Amino acid sequence: MINSNLNLLIGLAMGLNLLALGTSRLPALIRAMSAQGVILGVMPILMGHELDWQVVLVALATVAGKGLLIPSLLRRAMRTAQIDRELDPQIGFVASMLLGAGGTIAALALTHQLPLLPEHSGSLLVPGALATVLTGFILLIGRTKAISQVCGYLILENGIYLFGLLLIKAMPLLVEAGVLLDLTVGVFIIGIIVDRIQRAFDSLDTRKLTTLHE
Amino acid sequence: MTGLLLLPAVILLVMAVVVGARWPRLWLGFTLAGAGAALGAALTVFPSGGGWEWQSKFLLGGETVHLRLDGVSAVFMALAAVVGGAGAVYARGYWPDHGHPATAPRGRVWWSALVLSMLLVLTVSNGLHFLMAWEAFAISGYFLLTLDPRKPAVRAAGWLYLATSHAGTVCLFAFFTLLAARTGGWDLGPLRADASCAPLFWLALAGFGMKAGFFPLHIWLPSAHANAPSHVSAIMSGVAIKMGVYGIVRFSGWLPVPPAAGWVVIGLGALSALLGIAFALAQNDFKRLLAYCSVENIGIILIGLGAALLGREHGDAGWGRLALAGALLHVWNHGAFKTLLFFGAGSVLHATGTREMSRLGGLWRRMPWTAGLFALGSVAVAGLPPLNGFVSELLIYLGLFDAVAGRQASAWAAMPAVIVLAMSGALALAAFAKAGAIIFLGAARTKPAAAAHECDGWMRGPMLALAGICLVLGLAPVLLWPALASAAAAWHPAWAGAMSPEPLATLGWVNLGLAATLAAAGSWLWRKVRANNLRRAPTWDCGYGVPSAKMQYTSGSFAGLAAGWFGWVLRPVRTLRRVRGHFPAHALRLERVPETVLERVVFPAGGYVMEVSTAVRRLQHGRLSAYILYVVAGLAALGVLVFMESLP
């Protein structure tokens, strides 16, 4: 019963992956990313352990951070930079969606081959995590705007978080605090970089940064 | 006793390095005293034959310091000490402070550092320390070579030297680490029984051969020797390349060698001797000519060493001993006469400012000392009696003749080697007849040549000393017998004590008789000419009304016939504008001999490597997203690898 609820949420997150890959509009991308964050945030509560206050606190912090704080920061950056579309990406939208779908199927297939614990074998946790990490990578590789790449990075983090849920019984707080901290630092840094890129080059196109190599 | 002399030698040379930049006189004193002490240390080793060894508790890089000086290394140390001292004196006249205020102090410091590091290379008996000393030796050589870095040619020669030197060092790193892995320690010493070390000989041959400069590996040598200051060329050609020979001799003596080693070494020696002198013959730059002649002489040494290896392989044959003694004696002789020749070349360069033979001529009238000493060196290098080059080549000949007479398999290597040795000797005579004739005889071709001046005492002194060494080694080679016997015993213990100095003693008497006859004939001729009222006049000028200095043989035309035989490898590049019409305006014939190996093999190969590298470098373009793709692809590949491993 619990597993089926969990699987439903993970399935939803996987759907949001495809949405994030398929859209060209940045607000939609941010919305998909934040919705995925909220879904992942409530997941620990549904995992079926006794509701201790630590888990609730972590869930609330995740929902607040991924659902409200980070999206609002990104929206502000988007407004400052005055862009709301990802034009000419490295990997086209349809192509990246197909890649993501293929990756999801491959992740499902691969999971059957992996030597998992019996209690995890029925859940979508592992394939969901793999598919989400892959989505993050496709966004990082395929998009050129810095904000899209930040979203890709955050979705990648969501995937790692999903992997972390496997360990929640062993070390609940540690895993999530680590993930959250990592993520916050990442967003801060990328926020600053976005600001600097914008000021220095009047554009957020990372392809224009290639002359900086070496 | 040996240690008591080596310690002050090292201390004095270190002090010379310290004071070299500021106090030239003090530096000269320290360097000479250090070289003298090193020479003394080497000489103390010869009579006992046992060698000297010192194992300390002191650690350097985690290894105990282990020093050793035996017959083989003492031969090379004596040479390094003599040339190091002679060059220090010569540099005072050739590269003085008032002429080169910026570079002369630096040159002194690196000179002492070079001599010191060569002494260390010759004494350390630990693989790790050997590599350290070897690197210090290569680096000091580089800084000496590029003493005048404003000239692009000097910088290019320096880079080539550094690159090839390090290519050789890579082989030596592989050699010493593999040796340490097989023996279980870095300590060096005789390991003649351990057959698993035999294949390492090829690595040593390549690594030390790069420094020795035998034929296909000689690419750095001509440009380095031509562009370095002449005293540096002298020590590089006389001693530094011998360090490569030392390495080959040393480790072919200590370690077992593969059965093919003797054949390969004698083959490389023959190739090097013949092609080296062919290239020398075709050069127009006299320092390049001397450099290629060094390639030839390294070839002669390798022929001797290869015959020695063959002799050791085929039942300790006596002819192997003769060949080894000849090779080691030739190390000494080449060191002496090539240093003398480079000093002479430096004197000409100092007086005229050009290395082009075709711009010189008639220098003997203005530079009689240099001309005479250069001629003496030429006779020695061409292997003519009664000088020292003849003695060592004769020993090698005797060894090879005995090998041929033995009618074993090794006769098949010895017979062609004899033929090549004879050919290269004849060509060397032609090459040095050309150099001497074009530089010193005839009439001056340019103004600087006509205004040349004789070198000063600082330069003449070392040249006279080296000429004296050439003469003594030629007339009384038996003096060197203890050195050669102890070196041969250190190389192959079964050859200890069994040799007889008879050939050398006989040779000495023959040479003495010949020298006395020559001296008598010369003085008789001189008196005859003086008595008949010497009258100077132009030579017969074929009826031309106004003969000019241009109507002389050039260096190219002098050597044209002999160089033509080797056109297939020299591949000269010719520019020809023929004489046309009844009133020809301008005719031209230029001929340049390229560095065939460098320009036809190494540069194209290097260009190919650069192309591939440039293609690979396109992967690094600065696009972050693509870098992430590389990381993902790498991770995926690793994942696949792990997954494949986990499958049954």
| Number of separate structural domains of chain A | 1
Of all chain pairs, the largest interface belongs to: A-B, 18 and 12 residues
Query: Would you count the extended β strands of chain B for me?
Result: 4
Low-confidence stretches of chain A: none
Which sheet architecture does the biggest sheet of chain B show?
Answer: 2 strands, antiparallel
The first-to-last residue Cα distance of chain B is: 70 Å
Mean pLDDT of chain A: 78
Strand content of chain A: under 5%
Given as residue ranges, the uncertain stretches of chain B (5+ residues, pLDDT < 50) are none
Tell me the distance between the termini of chain A: 55 Å
**Category from helices, strands and their pairing of chain B:** mainly alpha
**Secondary structure: helix percent of chain B:** over 70%
SSE string of chain A:
HHHHHHH
Question: What's the total number of strands of chain A?
Answer: 0
Explain what this protein looks like in three dimensions.
The complex is a heterodimer of chains A (about 210) and B (about 650). The model of chain A has no long low-confidence stretch (mean pLDDT about 80). With about 210 residues, chain A is mainly α. Chain A is about 75% helix and about 0% strand. Chain A has helices spanning about 1-20, 25-45, 55-80, 95-115, 125-140, 145-165, 170-200. Chain B is mainly alpha-helical. A two-stranded antiparallel ribbon of chain B has the order 1-2. A two-stranded antiparallel ribbon of chain B has the order 3-4. Chain B starts with a helix and ends with a helix.
Short overview:
The complex is a heterodimer of chains A (214) and B (648). Chain A is mainly α.
Helix-strand blueprint:
The complex is a heterodimer of chains A (214) and B (648).
Chain A: H1 2-22, H2 26-46, H3 53-81, H4 93-113, H5 125-142, H6 146-165, H7 172-201
Helix pairs in contact in A: 1-2, 1-4, 1-5, 2-3, 2-6, 3-7, 4-5, 5-6, 6-7
Chain B: H1 2-19, H2 24-48, E1 52-60, E2 63-69, H3 71-94, H4 104-123, H5 127-145, H6 152-183, H7 200-212, H8 221-227, H9 230-254, H10 261-282, H11 286-313, H12 318-352, H13 363-366, H14 368-381, H15 388-405, H16 411-440, H17 447-450, H18 457-475, H19 481-491, H20 502-531, H21 555-565, H22 567-570, E3 573-577, E4 588-592, H23 596-617, H24 624-646
